[in-house]
Amino acid sequence: MASPELADSPKLHAHAASMLTVAMVCLGNSNALAQANMPTDSASTETATESIWEIAQAGGLIGYLIIALSIVAVALVFEQMFNLREKVIMPEGLSELVRQQLLSGRLRQADESCREKASVLSYILHAGLGEADIGWVAVEKAAEDATAEQSARLFRKIEYLSVIANICTMLGLLGTVVGLIIAFRELAGSGGLAKPAQLARGIYQALVTTVEGLIVAIPSMAAFAVLRNRLDQIMAESALAAQRALAPLKRLRVSRRGAREQEQATPGPLPATRSTGKDPSTTPSRTTEGDG
Question: What does the domain layout of the chain look like in residue ranges?
Answer without folding.
Answer: 81-261
